[in-house]
Amino acid sequence: MVELTATRLIGVDELGTASVAVVATAHGDLAVGLSEGKPFALSNRCRHLFAALGNGRVAEDGCLECPWHGARYDVNTGKMTRGPQGAFRPLAGVVKGTAGAVALARYPVELRDGAIWLVG
Range of 23's domain? Predict the structure, then answer.
């Protein structure tokens, strides 16, 4: 039997109203948070202009939203669901189709003892 190791990443009470934070790990900085009560950990860089996604927020639709231009990512798949907004909105579909074509890396996490843990 192989025993899995686990590393505590962050306490749920440390996430604040954004429901996400940047956490330094052996895999580099990750965007770690809660969406619809479930924990997630994704690579921390937006595919658009490389903003730190952990400085963004979990939006009302459960997606992780980039703090710079509002691109959104599905926390379950890592795929961009909405391209950048604001001045970039006319290009949102192009960005979603090109920069967003490669999903964010996902890392296995679980919720226990009031914290999010990296497992595996």
Answer: 6-119
pTM for the whole thing? 0.91
Residue at 1 is within a domain: no
Q: Dump pLDDT digits (tens) for 22-73.
A: 999 999 999 999 999 999 999 999 998 999 999 999 999 999 999 999 999 9
Instruction: For residue 85, give the 3-state DSSP assignment.
Output: coil
Return the beta strands (E) in the chain as ranges: 6-11, 20-25, 28-35, 38-43, 57-58, 64-65, 72-73, 80-82, 109-112, 115-119
- Is 46:39 a contact under the CB 8 Å cutoff? no
- Give all strands of the β-sheet with 38-43 in edge-to-edge order: 20-25, 28-35, 38-43
Q: What is the CATH number of the domain that holds 69?
A: 2.102.10.10
Cβ 117 vs Cβ 110: under 8 Å = yes
Asked, for residue 28, whether it belongs to a domain, the answer is yes
Please state the domain count of the chain: 1
